[in-house]
Amino acid sequence: MTRDLGVRDDMVRITGGSFTMGSDEFYPDERPVHERVVADFEIDRYAVTNSDFATFVAETAYVTIAERPIDPAQFPDADPADLVPGALVFAQTDGPVDLRDWRRWWRWVPGASWLHPQGPESTIDDRLEHPVVQVAYADALAYAAWAGKRLPTEAEFEFAARGGHEGRRFAWGDVPYPDGVPRANTWLGRFPYENRGRHGAGTAPVGSYPPDDHGLHDMIGNVWEWTSDLYTPRHMVPDLRPVDAEKRPNLLASAPGEQSTVRRVLKGGSYLCSPDYCLRFRPAARSPQAEDTATTHIGFRCAR
């Protein structure tokens, strides 16, 4: 499963500067639009692949979060038989479902991990150049540290994903499918039961779509990607005055009924993003994800 490490060290230099971050057109957590400044940085040309991650595991014997035993003390009311390592796996439905209930297309699969993304019977043997998935935030951090890199910030990712262009809704322009042609691996059809995309309801090999004007591949679509930023339900504009702090709501508080947990920002959208459900395959789009969660549509790339 190992190969040459060329992809891992293939990075693109991004000249920093100021840019307009966020959007007022789509989802509330993309607001407010504001000016943000980033310094020069480098970012991986491709998302980290299964082959890259296999090399990391072979050299370090690292065990991902999804592969580790679950502590029964953290779930005192659960049946111990259910507390086995595993992860979330996307399951395409047979027909229309209530799009307000994500449980209709996600299922917990014991034995699912980066090495067995769909469950213990699955393999990555024919998917070595696909982005690694089923990696939690700590797994991405561990890989980045081993590689002598780090995870990009949300601002860096958005700046790079814009490809050097300001004001576009999408990385390539103002419409999702110019001339009816998809520019990224996103959901084509009615979510979550009809998919007409050439890669189906799953990941594509990295670099399957043309690069942006920075030379970066798949900054939009394919897999959501971890960033280092904590998630808040709206952008924390850098120049908010400390005097206003006590008047602001606790933006990290959990919603009613939710278990409190640390969440990070995901960027880029994935193969599950579609205009009728998740119009988030845009540079400004963002999504919250609990640090300890691994799924079949989350991966990462590194920066430095």
TrEMBL record:
The species this protein was found in: Microbacterium immunditiarum
* Family annotation (SUPFAM superfamilies): C-type lectin-like
User: Domain Sulfatase-modifying factor enzyme-like spans what residues?
Assistant: 9-304
User: What GO molecular function annotations does the UniProt record carry, in alphabetical order?
Assistant: formylglycine-generating oxidase activity
Signal sequence bounds = none
Which InterPro entries did the record assign?
Answer: CTDL_fold (IPR016187), Sulfatase_Mod_Factor_Kinase (IPR051043), SUMF_dom (IPR005532), SUMF_sf (IPR042095)
Task: Specify the domain of life of the species encoding this protein.
Answer: Bacteria
Protein's name according to its UniProt entry: Formylglycine-generating enzyme required for sulfatase activity
